Amino acid sequence: MNENIKTEIEHNFLESLLSGNKANCSALVKQYLAINPSIMDLYEEILKKALYSVGVLWETNNISVATEHLATAITEGILNELFEQIISNKRCNKKVLVTCVENEAHQVGIKMVADVFEMNGWESFFIGTGIPTKELIRSVHEIKPDVVAISLSVYFNYSRLLNMLKKMRAEFPELQFIVGGQAFQHSSQKGITEIENVIHIPDLYLLDKYVKTLNNNH
Amino acid sequence: MHMNTRNDIVYDWQTLLDSLLQNGKSVAIGTFDAGGQMLTANTAMCYFMDADPQTLKSKNIFVNPEFSVIANNTNTGLIFEGLLTLGNRLDISYALNAKVFRQQNEILVFAEVDIPLLFDENRKMSQLNQEVNNLQRQLIREKKNLQNTLEELRDTQQMLIQSEKMNALGKMVAGVAHELNNPIAFVYSNLFSIEQYVSEFANTSKQINNLIQQKADKELAAEIDEIQRETDWYELLDDISDMSRESKAGIERIKNIVADLRKFSRLDEADIKQIDLVESIKSTVNIVRAEMLRKQIDFEMSVPQQLIVDCYAGQLNQAIMNVLINAIDAVDVQGKVSLEASVENENTCITITDNGSGIPDEIRNRIFEPFFTTKPVGSGVGLGLSITYKIIHDLHRGSIQLHSLPGQSTSFKITIPSKINII
């Protein structure tokens, strides 16, 4: 894809997002997919970048929480517009449970993660945000997923994630965990990767590779 | 050097506060005359009343309570306290926490935006929006599931129609075969008698001729000889004997074909039962033999004397025939097709191999899908292998393995358990 066009779409998308123009955002996504039909690229290059910029704008006190919520809501709407074409018809009988760290309400990133699993034939279970660890443990017993994916958006909640993983590891010694999210962007994964069977996956491309490896191994 | 005095600071703070009140957007202050005409207004009041800051002409009005209701109270001091809605009665509506004071004919409106409330509302809205999004996602998933189920049902319906057709055809074939049995039997029996009679007739004729040669006068013998020569008497007798022998061979073949058709359709054996698979395979091969002869196919069959298996005989024959027909279709004229059957541990295996063009990698995982066909339009509906798969996999708990070398050969190996615990 021509870099200029990409930069233009990227710029216009962020602008439309901040001004609450959902129709325009939708049109830009269509424009992008007409040139490059890769949903993964769309997620990484447009949606993720835009939302990370929104996060930075909020952190630097340039936009309000309301605007951030609006941007998130529009992006989620777009994910839903794409969801139907994302669900793969070839199912592989594997399940992933996706959630956010306890007390966090940022669910867009983890939905993108769920979508990558769906594209690869997995069934994804999103159990909502702000789920206490106790509740999460109950859900894992019930759903019996092959992988649990946890997103961390705010670095402030890092120790919460660590505690959550330790509790979960004690309850499910064999279960595979993957973690990721904006909080890992500029910080180390201290303590997390020392827990057995916990992998930090920094982007959707690597996630896709990881899921494909799981699909081929079993 | 200038030192800030206490008064200077107070003055500065006063200026700041005045400026905040004048320009802030969260506290609206304005004065009105008793008729509702705006006399003074800060920036916030101008915003909420949609008023021009210069002329103070406003587009919005007091929606609830109306200005006249408030102004009706002619007391001095606080005359209204509570939520005041300003707007245009159409699409604009602002709810503000307000206090309204009166001093003679001048009315002062002091109203503030409830920021904590707005934050709270925003948070609730965000949560609700998340829930709506999650529900929408679930709905999309359900819709997709329903679509898939609908497609599967459509395919199953078509397969049912097709297998119903095959069933009807099988019934018809079995019916015709049964009806043919009686006439074949009496034609066969008559031919047998005719052959016998002709032989007796020929013997008698020889004896009569011998007697004529010995005892009749020469003139009579010559006349009889003349008649026999004119009518080709002895040639006729030879011909009749040949014809009845050939007819017997023909009717023998018809008998075998009818028996094969009956064995193939096995209508009387809809349930699982023990059969000799070799006998079944031979009947199936006989049915498609005409097509093999037409294409001059080099067919090799390697089967043991007997293979006893538990199966749904009619259906299993159908499955084997489908694979065999595909093999015949896949090869060129004078191509090679082979069929092997054997026992492997607890299983019975039938392998059908052809030296056709093979199955390309990219379609290999689609060949068992209903309606998938590579044959030209009109010559196949693409159900053969999917029906075969259902018969082998679902009905017999067996498996079909495909081994194909593109450009060289294709081989299908059907494996079914030899014994099924029939409950």
Which helices and strands appear, and what pairs or packs with what?
The complex is a heterodimer of chains A (218) and B (423).
Chain A (H helix, E strand, L loop, with lengths): L2 H16 L3 H14 L3 H21 L5 H22 L8 E6 L7 H12 L3 E4 L6 H11 L3 E5 L6 H14 L4 E5 L17 E3 L3 H14 L1
Helix pairs in contact in A: 1-2, 1-3, 3-4, 4-5, 5-8
Chain B lengths: L5 H18 L3 E7 L4 E4 L1 H6 L12 E4 L2 H5 L5 E11 L5 E11 L2 E7 L2 H101 L2 H13 L2 H33 L7 E4 H18 L3 E5 L5 E4 L1 H18 L5 E9 L2 E8 L6 H4 L19 H12 L3 E7 L3 E9 L6
Parallel strand pairs in B: 8-10
Antiparallel strand pairs in B: 1-2, 1-6, 3-4, 4-5, 5-6, 7-9, 10-11, 11-13, 12-13
Helix pairs in contact in B: 4-6, 6-7, 7-8, 8-10
Fold and architecture overview:
The complex is a heterodimer of chains A (218) and B (423). Chain A is of the alpha/beta class and 218 residues long. Chain A has two domains: 84 residues, Methionine synthase domain (Methyltransferase, Methionine Synthase (B12-binding Domains), Chain A, domain 1, Orthogonal Bundle); 123 residues, Rossmann fold (3-Layer(aba) Sandwich), CATH 3.40.50.280. Chain A is built from eight helices and five strands; from the N terminus they run ααααβαβαβαββα. In chain A, helix 3 runs antiparallel to helix 4, helix 4 runs parallel beside helix 5 and helix 5 packs parallel to helix 8. The termini of chain A are far apart. The model of chain A has no long low-confidence stretch (mean pLDDT 90). Chain B has three domains: 108 residues, PAS domain (Beta-Lactamase), CATH 3.30.450.20; 109 residues; 153 residues, Histidine kinase-like ATPase, C-terminal domain (Heat Shock Protein 90, 2-Layer Sandwich). In chain B, the strands form three sheets. Chain B has a six-stranded antiparallel β-sheet with strand order 2-1-6-5-4-3. Chain B has a five-stranded mixed β-sheet with strand order 8-10-11-13-12, with helices on one face. In chain B, strands 7-9 form a two-stranded antiparallel ribbon. In chain B, strand 1 and strand 2 form a beta hairpin. Chain B is rod-shaped and about 175 Å long. Chains A and B meet through helix 4 of A and helix 4 of B.
